[in-house]
Amino acid sequence: MILHGYWRSGAAYRVRIALALKGLAYEQVNHDLRTGAHTDPAYATLNPQRLVPALEVDGLILTQSAAILEWLDERFPDPPLLPVDADGRAIVRGMVATIATDVHPLHNLRTLKALRRDFGASEDQVNAWMTHWMTEGFAALETLIARHGDGFAYGATPTLADCITVPALYSAERFGVDVAPYPHLVASAARTAALAEAAHPSRQPDADA
Amino acid sequence: MILHGYWRSGAAYRVRIALALKGLAYEQVNHDLRTGAHTDPAYATLNPQRLVPALEVDGLILTQSAAILEWLDERFPDPPLLPVDADGRAIVRGMVATIATDVHPLHNLRTLKALRRDFGASEDQVNAWMTHWMTEGFAALETLIARHGDGFAYGATPTLADCITVPALYSAERFGVDVAPYPHLVASAARTAALAEAAHPSRQPDADA
């Protein structure tokens, strides 16, 4: 397996966490989003969206982190990262989407670039924008994790939800967003991060020194 | 089952399509997003994110359209809306996420409100913003559907991908985005829409006259 990523991409980090939790070996091809390396035509042939991550497996190209996480869990089911029952799976997938659809796309690199380009957004405005969407999503997740968690976001073992919360909190820390109001979220993510240290952005081959 | 929705919510529309394709009966409770009815404290108890849709089933509350779609397909597998093989499922889920994470959250009602509020975005700027994200996502989907579709977005029967493309094209039409460059996307969505006419926004009980 080849993971196309970028050390600081929150979406690539999700996939690295799942790979780490499952103990899977993989190669990395990294694309520096800051210099636009992912817009290279050769990469666009692989991934028409020209985003990271993408997972290359025996000629098959999988895109979108949430879809890759599901595929990894189906193909490498040990340890499972989804509950055994449909209702539990729906709760976990709802947690995943809370971040993956309603928080992260609103503050990832390309969106922030567009805010600066299209609206002349200042850094203060960009920070307020990011903080707004993170705190909205984190507050909802805190309620859900308090309701369904037992050490991890859902139940007593890591799930796909934890693969998503860890990068979300990494972003929050990076941008100085206060996460003290979300103790269940913070504790469950910290427990997962400790199980997947090799996945941390700072430990990737393309990380800034 | 009770679907908490709003006639013009693209995310609620996705769920209505899946319900229609599976021939499932359900009740509707609609929340007028324009007047902020979804921020009512009673609804926040049900759905901490205070967004639509949510699906209420025997006391269980499911949130996030992508998670609800997966749950419906697991609980009511006939007709199936995901391919039988893991690789195919990953492609379909990637298509779903292309719209659900990288297009729709950037132009839904709350995001456009925030652009106007935080950056004083004009209507021309808002329209250019929406057009930008839609055309980025549609172009990628067009490539994927040309590659994997056979009448529908993936293969020869509707999948969760089609549940997502139909509302995406409804939004494009509503906001005057040119979809002529995406013939595979348009044709597959039209075929699905014809199978799920009851799900159309204009046919919902809370629709504007």
From TrEMBL, chains A, B:
GO biological process: glutathione metabolic process; L-phenylalanine catabolic process
Residue ranges of every copy of the GST C-terminal domain listed in the record: 85-209
Keyword entries, A-Z: Isomerase
Any GO molecular function: glutathione transferase activity
Stretches assigned to the GST N-terminal domain: 1-80
Top-tier EC class: isomerase
EC number: 5.2.1.2
Record bears the keyword Cell cycle: no
GO cellular component: cytoplasm
Domain of life where this protein originates: Bacteria
InterPro entries: Glutathione-S-Trfase_C-like, Glutathione-S-Trfase_C_sf, Glutathione_S-Trfase, Glutathione_S-Trfase_N, GST_Zeta, GST_Zeta_N, Thioredoxin-like_sf
Family under the similarity heading: Belongs to the GST superfamily. Zeta family.
NCBIfam families documented for this protein: maiA
Protein name (Swiss-Prot/TrEMBL): Maleylacetoacetate isomerase
Source organism of the structure: Sphingomonas liriopis
Gene from which this protein is expressed: maiA
